[in-house]
Amino acid sequence: MEKRTFYITTPIYYPSDKLHIGHSYTTVAADAISRYKRLKGYDVMFLTGTDEHGQKIQRKAEARGITPKQYVDEIVSGIKELWKTMKISNDRFIRTTDDYHEAAVQKIFKKLYDNGDIYKSEYEGWYCTPCESFWTKTQLVDGKCPDCGREVELTKEESYFFRLSKYQDRLIKHIEENPDFIQPVSRRNEMLNNFLRPGLEDLCVSRTTFNWGVPVTFDEKHVVYVWIDALSNYITALGFMSENNSDYRKYWPADVHLVGKEIVRFHTIIWPAMLMALGEPLPKQVFGHGWLLLEGGKMSKSKGNVVDPVVLIDKYGVDAVRYFLLREVPFGSDGVFSNEALIQRINSDLANDLGNLVSRTVAMIDKYFGGVLPRQRTEGEFDSELKAMFAELPQKVEELMDKYQFSAALSEIWKAISRTNKYIDETMPWALAKSEENKPRLAAVIYNLAESLRIVSILIQPFMTETPDKIRHQLGISGSEALDWESAKRWGSYPEGVSVNKGEVIFPRIDIKKEMEELEKLNPAARTEQVPDSNAEAHGNKAAKENKDVSGSGNRAPQESKAASSDPTSKAELITIDDFAKLDLRVAKVLEAEKIEGSDKLLKLKLEMGGETRQVVSGIAKHYSPDSLVGKSVILVANLKPVKLKGIESQGMILAASNDDSLVIATLDSEIGTGAKVK
RNA sequence: CGCGGGGUGGAGCAGUCCGGUAGCUCGUCGGGCUCAUAACCCGAAGGUCGCAAGUCCAAAUCUUGCCCCCGCAACCA
Fold first, then answer.
1. Which residue of A140, A499, A536, A620 is 20 to 30 Å from A380, comparing CA positions?
2. What residue has its CA nearest to the C1' of B27?
């Protein structure tokens, strides 16, 4: 009989910057599912990769004076390194710059064109020449370029379009008839109500304004824009449209695409429509998980927020980090990452509960029996309850894993660990050890402990990669003995006559206070930020706003490994003194300040500057009350071109320092009189 | 009336779909034990489940209205 297959994917990540803990979150989750399915006997195909084309990368490469390919090569090797460090067991890694992928994309594009699903038209938009960017009307800010604030002009760009609208009804039908297609359900409703039912517009699928992409074969000035290039990776990786498509026939349709919640839309609307147009089956499920947020609020300053996965792995080990990611947040909801929470998890779950249980069990076998349990054992009170719990455990874990409820699955396993710790108190082995006649009973008690741990070591295999072996080694279970998933269902498989190896503590306790101080040192610029979810940069999000990179280079300790250690964007461009001289900075005094109706961020200020009054609109309402500003001396950018904000003219801008938490306006050390030049 | 998420003991969450003893983890306090990583086990304190009205024998859970917080979007010059 042929093995059942299981095909799972992560998004392909956009290598414009290095990855952060959020990307690791998605990938570790996919890895846990993959490992679980393999243990269950599936023939698994686990795919991850990178989405390497697009304007943003082209620009970044230009800025560094290297080719886009050189640029992405560097970052991609860092990403591969990271996955290796995190023990990600992907079977394949696709890069959209791989030649087989590019060839397949060209064929797909051509096929869709030949079928009439792609047609040539014009893309109307506002063009910002310095930025070389198109913007839609809604993206414009005050009718100007949202990036640089300069004037834009209405332009038409020749472009190819995909007939997305044609598939609208079929998509709705599919989603309604397949309740599992979009998970969790809340996302399903969102898609139907917000996008599908209001109606779809055709999608622009080519660009002429940049050339770092897959060329359209029959119209060389166009490159394929993100959608067809990126989304199709899920099938091109399997050889779709290539000479050898046996993997495609074997694994497609995918069992699950794991994605962050912000790109659910692309995967449940655009991607299925593309597949419909190609006449190929749709993926069975798209699972949109939540975001891993960083701790908010003022607390963070005293805590430090190192969120580079490599730092954490170096300090606490890969299993601790993997455990935390999968345990802390219920998959599907948003969760919070903090160093404190991580350390607490490590201490209480890993060190105190599991690590200590291994430690005391092995120590007792060593101390009471010289390292080898005797065969003669007597069952007794409390045994049946423990056994009953472990008898149910594998089944429970399976049910939860089938729903991708990692957190709950781990929670069940830890309940059993806890129960085992309690069993020691109930049976009091140290009391039994006092008399020779109780030895058979003592042996049974400790055997049950070892057996519990054996089962635990099997069940945690999807989540942790080193710990299972460490536990088995200490218990004296060698090689693949009693290691397979099914054996977790057979109580009594702990081998006879093996001798234990008292070894190192598996998870040392961490001194939380000391550790927080150390992390703080590692990360002097610690501040609260929001981690974009794991895929902030995947699939088409290139087009989205700026990326807020959590683990920006400033957070990285100097001795860190090179997982994408180069961050070409971090250094501000150098300017000359002449550039600086263009700014006319002046001291000004706040005469009046008031809130602007209908805005929660803006204040209207009246300033006095060397006899002249200026009206300035400033986005500081969340940090300053109007009253507190009156009378303050501030620094004004006096020669800024006036603009209207909320219909109110702003004639300049006042300087303020800010990070994500707070904002402080720049004032002066002592009085000097308004109008004084600042330089 | 822009979209979405949320308000449950000190902290973080579950429970809300399918009304019926308010549960878990951490922390605090007290006790037990000594095999173990100052760990483990037991117990206790602590919540009018954001507010109000309604339905019902019964509401954290259903209905309606309101308040507050957090993302996103929009104004952040």
1. A499
2. A344
